[in-house]
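Researcher: Go.
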Amino acid sequence: MSEQRSIEALERENERLRKIIVQQEMSDFSIADTLTKGNELHMKLEGGLCHFISSAFIEHFIQTGANNFIVMGLNNPDTKERYDVTIQRVEGEHMGTQLQRLTNELNEAKEKLSQAGL
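Model: Structure:
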């Protein structure tokens, strides 16, 4: 029974330390600047937590071999809702622009096939 109490004590200590770390990182978090551009919102975030998250996202981008953008799915375990986070190179083609370009190319190909009687 003492082993079970020891595990429970370690779990309580782990939770206590986790709360301290979260509190410290969240108190260090700030939105330094915002800019709206059309229907986009750009934010400059500061703090240790931001550096940790952004470094993880960038590393994931690099590891996947993506050359323009990647979309990562996130799940909220409490509500079971799903969210997508998109990371894109600044100089890359935006997804909306890419979709429009590909739609135009498809329409042009359909028109050529139609003109050829196919």
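Model: The longest strand covers residues 30-37.
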